[in-house]
Amino acid sequence: MQGAGKALHELLVSAQRRGCLTAGVYDSAKLRNVDPDNVAFCVLAADEEDEGDVALQIHFTLIQAFCCENAIDIVRVNDVGKLAAIVGPSEDSGEPRDLHCILITNPNEDGWKDPALEKLNSFCEESRNVNDWVPTITLPE
Q: Where would I find the Ribosomal protein eL8/eL30/eS12/Gadd45 domain in this sequence (predicted)?
């Protein structure tokens, strides 16, 4: 599990640097409608206080259904603050952004293989083998 947290951290940093990270429930929904074949990985994040947000939970259910239907690996993170520390504010406005859903897309570069993404794909496959379809990952400090 600790290795998965480190791999997720590395993937988020790498994807952001390459411009392959889409953050926010609504921006992610737009991307899923426009270019669903380009989505490579999904992160859902919620703190304890978000668990009672019915609208957010409905969005999570729809996102999970999309990911399962399109064979996209998906994980949960229970600490939006740690996620914000990794991803940071919006580059456009400098404002904090919605990090409840993050999609990692395939870059246009041919042959780009991210070792962190491959580790996370393996982690998700192992989790599915024990019937954990949306495993929770703890990000490192």
A: 7-88
